[in-house]
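Our collaborator T.R. sent over the components below with a one-line note: 'Predict the complex.' Nothing else. No constraints on interfaces, no templates requested, no preferences about which chain binds where. So this is a plain run: every listed entity goes in together, and whatever single assembly comes back becomes the starting point for the next discussion.
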Amino acid sequence: MAITTDHIRDKLIAEIGAIHVEVEDTSANRCATSFKVIVVSPQFEGKPLLQRHRMVNTCLATELKEIHAFEQKTLTPEQWEKQKQQ
Amino acid sequence: MNSVMNSILRHTARAAGARWMSSSSSEEVLKNLEQIVKKDKVVVFMKGTPAQPMCGFSNAVVQILRMHGVEKYSSYNVLENQELRQGVKTFSNWPTIPQVFFNGEFVGGCDILLQMHQSGDLVEELDKLGIRSALLDKTTPSQ
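Returned assembly:
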């Protein structure tokens, strides 16, 4: 089964309470299945970057086996608001 | 001076690579990795070498370290050894390459290093290792 941007988005919303997800399929720029995601979740609050990324990696563990390259940005709702203003 | 240092480092990496070939059990690989990441302050597992990165993400890590004037680090080319490529993922419980270690501790991949660079955390973390970031000596304001 091919991995879709919708599938990734739905899973991040369901499993780590993401309130905003942006998934970009970057496969065309690279040599194989690649995605770039921005995940905004209140569950990231107070957690160091490494732990946030681990949450995303764990959530998508099965998918990552098929994904060649994966870029992520993990933000709290507060950080997201700030970034949007810039 | 730097080029001498680099060639020594590359030599070290090659020697380590040779040792990898002989290790067989995955348990042994993990034990070796524990020693390898503790051997130097900064250790990078990447695709290719700092002189010739074979992937954009690995290249990004090399460029970030270069910007901070970090030249003395060990790098291991996972493309040369499948056992190492799998082993390091298991060891750090991290699914992708590149992987960066400071003082034997897993820091993260390319995204994390980039964000640490942008937030200024990287300067601080390097300071904890006793490495003064070259960016501190630049007179031009940072981006």
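Summary for T.R.: Chain B touches chain A at residues 57, 93-96, 106-112, 115-116 (CB under 8 Å).
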